[in-house]
Amino acid sequence: MIERYTRPEMARIWTEENKFQAWLEVEILSCEAWSELGVIPKEDVKVLRENASFNIDRIYEIEQETRHDVIAFTRAVSETLGPERKWVHYGLTSTDVVDTALGYLLRQANEILDKDIQNFIEILRNKAIEHKDTAMMGRTHGVHAEPTTFGLKMALWYEEMKRNLERFRFAADGVQFGKISGAVGTYANIDPFVEEYVCGKLGTKAAPISTQTLQRDRHAEYMATLALVATSLDKFATEIRALQKSEFREVEEPFAKGQKGSSAMPHKRNPIGCESISGLSRVIRGHMVSAYENVTLWHERDISHSSVERIILPDATQLLNYMLNRLGNIIKNLTVFPENMKRNMRSTYDVPFSGRVMTKLIDKGFAREQAYDTVQPRAMQAWKEQRSFREIVENASVITEVLSPEEIADCFDPSWHLKHVDTIFNRLGLK
Predict the structure, then answer these.
(1) Which residues, including other chains, have CB under 8 Å from residue 50's CB and lie 6 or more apart?
(2) Which pLDDT belongs to residue 259?
(3) How confident is the model at residue 269 (pLDDT cuts 50, 70, 90)?
(4) C-alpha separations of 425 from 128, 148, 167, 341 in Å
(5) Cβ atoms within 10 Å of 428's Cβ, excluding its own
(6) In the beta sheet, which residues pair with residue 17?
(7) Which helix (H) or strand (E) holds 149?
(8) Using one digit for the tens of pLDDT, what is the confidence trace for 132-186?
(9) pLDDT, tens digit, for every residue of 71-115?
(10) Hey, what domains does the chain have and what are their CATH numbers?
(11) How far from 355 is each of 42, 265, 412, 417, CA to CA, in Å?
(12) Cα gap 171→168, rounded to integer Å
């Protein structure tokens, strides 16, 4: 992933240095396991642990000849050792090392992403509580519907991200596996104990069954989950972008001192952070498709998945790490304009209260169809003439014959629509 969208803590995990270090750890732990079984002398394992190392440039140099990165790696490591070098890669096939190390690297990445999601949830929680009673107009199909609160919008996102955390933890658990089962998964040249030992030391789990590879349905599910989390962020960012339109200006993402919005228009304050989130989510969703393509491998393995995963797994985890932190900062420091929300609520001539008038008429004995057909033309009249819907209702004899002035006034009280906000917040444990 390019540096622009990368944070140091996640970038470190996907460096070549860290990858080869993970490979080396798998190799040494395998030797430790063989030693436990009495195959490799303990003194040799001690020397391996103390002296085995690698030089990345040397690995690349050897790979120019071998055209095989794992063989290049094991030979580069062997060059740093004495007679004990014969135990390097003992009983292993290349993917025993690569897939087991990958599960270990993903565990490292997942620890960061888990914390990121938790932090994002906390930001939403705080923003929801802060704006629990900040009234605004709810919109359906982009059109004014009925009053809601900005806090409810944040609470909705809060609950969605809690679901995403559950999904993420399940999917993360599914890729934190290793396999050391040999060329076709039969443990022909290795004891299953080695697999259990190595995975246990790495904090991963041994696959119950494998071929030469771990099955890629695991990684497809993982990538689908990352894509779903990214899509939630896209949804949130898109809403902020919409509410920041000049016509609305109900919220605004942070705009730093000295920041510029346009090279041609000095007045511009654009939601570029949220637009970036929407764009990056498309990249992760695209990688999800590639992960699904990786599920179909020939027989006990081929390497068609390998080139893809070298790109999509580092990219997707780094992007999501960046997105969670950037959008979290935007929401945490979001400017909210309650007065603009009130202004916008008044801008559509009170027609959003038409449903309340209709319900009142039904309460007074109108059939639903009769009530609907009484209210709708008067709401349309308010739209057309840009007049107060309340004024039209107050002057409609068919309505005033059954509703008192107090009852009509009650229909246009925004608090009626918000009377259960506390109930919703209590359901969510937001206090």
Answers:
(1) none
(2) 76
(3) confident
(4) 9, 13, 23, 21
(5) 15
(6) none
(7) strand 143-149
(8) 999 999 999 999 999 999 999 999 999 999 999 999 999 999 999 999 999 999 9
(9) 999 999 999 999 999 999 999 999 999 999 999 999 999 999 999
(10) 6-342 (1.20.200.10), 351-411 (1.10.40.30)
(11) 80, 43, 10, 11
(12) 5
Catalytic residues: 141, 262
Residue that the structure tokens 């970038």 belong to: 11
DSSP string, 289-337: HHHHHTT---TT--SHHHHHHHHHHHHHHHHHHHHHHHHHHHHHT-EE-
8 Å CB contact between 144 and 137: yes
Q: Could you say which DSSP state residue 298 is in?
A: -
Q: What pLDDT band is residue 262 in, cutting at 50, 70 and 90? A: low
**Residue 335 bridge partners (DSSP):** 252
User: What does the mean pLDDT of the chain come to?
Assistant: 96
Residue 280: C-alpha distances to residues 14, 146, 239, 317 (Å): 19, 33, 16, 12
Q: What would the two tokens of residue 338 be?
A: 């309650």
- For the record, the structure tokens of 366 come out as 């109108």
Q: Rounded CA gap, 138 and 37, in Å?
A: 67
Q: What is the pLDDT of residue 268?
A: 66
Alpha-carbon gap, residue 23 to 414, rounded angstroms: 63
Q: Under a CB-based contact definition with an 8 Å cutoff, are residues 363 and 395 in contact?
A: no
- 57: which residues sit within 8 A by CB, 6+ positions away? none
How many whole angstroms separate alpha carbon 3 and alpha carbon 16?
15
Question: Using the 8-state DSSP alphabet, how is residue 178 labeled?
Answer: E
User: H or E stretch including 206?
Assistant: strand 205-206
Reduced to 3 states (helix: H, G, I; strand: E, B; else coil), residue 347 is coil
Residue type (1 letter), 340: N
Which helix (H) or strand (E) segment holds residue 289: the answer is helix 272-293
- The Cα 255–Cα 270 span in angstroms is 8
Percentage of the chain exceeding pLDDT 70: 99
CA distance 336 to 6: 29
The DSSP bridge partners found for residue 147 are 137
pLDDT above 90: percentage of residues in the chain: 95
176, 110 Cβ separation under 8 angstroms: yes
Structure confidence by residue, pLDDT tens digits, 320-373:
999 999 999 999 999 999 999 999 999 999 999 999 999 999 999 999 999 999
User: What does the radius of gyration of the chain's CA atoms come to, in whole angstroms?
Assistant: 30
Sign of CA dihedral 64, 70, 72, 76: positive
Number of Cβ atoms within 10 Å of the Cβ of 302: 12
Q: Using a cut of 0.70, tell me whether the model's pTM lies above it.
A: yes
Nearest to 99 by CA among 256, 301, 288: 301
What's the rounded mean pLDDT across residues 18-39?
99
